[in-house]
Amino acid sequence: MRAAGILRAAIVATLLLSGSAMGPVASAAGPALDPPRSGPCVEDPKLMRRSHMEFLRHDRDDTVRRGIRPVKHSLAACVDCHANAKDGQVLGSEQHFCQGCHSYAAVKPDCFGCHASTARPATTASAGAAGSLR
Amino acid sequence: MNPVSKRRREFLGTAATIAGAMIAPGVFLYDYAHGKAPGEAASGKVRWGMLIDTTKCASGCRDCVDACNQENGLPGTTRPTDSQWIRKVDLKDLKTGKAISAPVMCQHCADPPCVDVCPTGASFKRADGIVLVDRHTCIGCRYCMMACPYKARSFVHEPTTGQKPDVPRGKGCVESCTLCVHKVDRGGTPSCVEACAAAGHHAIVFGDLNDPQSEISKRVRAVATTQLRADLRTDNGVRYQGI
User: Fold this and answer.
1) Nearest 5 degrees, angle CA A16-CA A18-CA A19?
2) pLDDT of residue B15 exceeding 80
3) Chain B interface includes A121 (CB < 8 A)
4) Using CA atoms, how far apart are residues B157 and B160, in angstroms rounded to an integer?
5) Which residues of B touch A61 (CB under 8 A)?
6) Residue B192 CA from chain centroid, whole number
7) How far apart are CA B47 and CA B60, in angstroms?
8) Beta pairing class for B131-133 and B123-125
9) How far apart are CA A64 and CA A79, in angstroms?
10) Cβ contacts of B171 on chain A, cutoff 8 Å
């Protein structure tokens, strides 16, 4: 089960990183996403594509159980930055950040059954050049 | 350990602590946390608690409940299966006719029954005394709802929408008052406390029970306060005055 997951992740990552055009729809450049709201990510995008779920899983426990806020990799901060500039959402269409990339990679995130997929208002979300650390 | 030697040890420990805190005769060095810096973990030096003064709480006022619903993105509907983090309870002593009104929420026990019975470890008590549900781990078995003497926990029966970014909520998990942990971690106070103060009642005091200088500690020292169902020895973080 775990091995299969690792294999699948490796295949997905290879597809995403090598840019080989496999499917009839998928372009070599990856999913076509609308521009996000703000500047550079808290990690190198290549690393994030491969490992963002591990970062989130680690830091969620720091926040929930140890009360560490802000953490570097918090889902709310991801959503704040990557929300679509038009409607402040990361879900909704193939151009929205989370939905677009996950459907391109054929994986299903289940964060948003509980977590908000909407960016926080700019007053609370400090989306800076270094990325928000909330 | 027999109770006598336990008491003796506690006394000696306390005496040693006091001696250690005295850096010169009559000069004491207090080391108590007041909140925490951003990015710092919750510390056992703090114990967050509330004091609810039932003599100031107005019957029929629901400002704390509404503020809680607003802050945490709860629907605020009152069907039997809907989530409820604070209840307003009205009591009347039939012999004397004395009526009191008070909010009842998770009492943030030092010895929480919900944590005792949770089969997955999802119910847990943070170092600073706040009792929470880790929804990443909760399987929705509702043992904690059975165990809680205060009826403080709710189960989410239906898909949720419109969650607040700081307060994830999802179907199939148990939830309860978090003492607005997302605000407390950033140096704020719970929304019910703010709403009660804004309404002019000031019936809820929030603070650090371990800090002798905090307002809540002074009040708890000065007036007689009660823990609900103190006979269960759960040592609640929420105390009531005037019951």
Assistant:
1) 65
2) no
3) no
4) 9
5) 136
6) 12
7) 31
8) antiparallel
9) 18
10) 113
**What's the gap in Å between the CA of B122 and the closest CA on chain A?**
10
Inter-CA distances, B138 with B73, B130, B148, B174, Å: 20, 17, 16, 7
- CA dist B217 and B211 (Å) reads 7
Which of A60, A62, A69, A73 to mutate to test binding with chain B, by most B CBs within 10 Å of its CB?
A69
Q: Look at the block and give the residue holding tokens 């190198």.
A: A44
* Pairwise CB contact (< 8 Å): A76 & B166: yes
Query: Six-digit token pair at A110?
Result: 């289940």
A64 contacts in chain B (CB < 8 Å): 132, 134, 136
Average pLDDT of every residue of chain B: 90
Q: Is beta strand B238-241 parallel, antiparallel or unpaired with respect to B48-53?
A: parallel
Q: 């148990």: which residue's tokens?
A: B174
CB proximity B3 to A under 8 Å: no
Tell me, yes or no, if A68 comes closer than 8 A to chain B by beta carbon: yes
pLDDT for B168 equals: 96
Contact list in B for residue A89 (CB cut-off 8 A) is: none
Nearest CA to A30 out of A51, A15, A52 is that of: A15
Q: Do A76 and B171 touch (CB under 8 A)?
A: no
* Side-chain-side CA neighbours of residue B187 (13 Å): 7
Determine the pLDDT at residue A85: 86
pTM given for the model:
0.79
Instruction: Note whether A66 contacts B: Cβ–Cβ < 8 A.
Output: yes
H-type helices in chain A, by residue range?
A: 2-18, 45-66, 75-82, 97-105
| A92-116 mean pLDDT | 93
Residues B212-219 have a mean pLDDT of: 96
Q: What is the model's pLDDT at position B62?
A: 95
User: Which residues in chain B touch residue A119, judged by CB atoms under 8 angstroms apart?
Assistant: 165
More confident residue, A38 or B171: B171
Q: How do beta strands B48-53 and B154-155 pair?
A: unpaired
CA distance B24 to chain A (A): 36
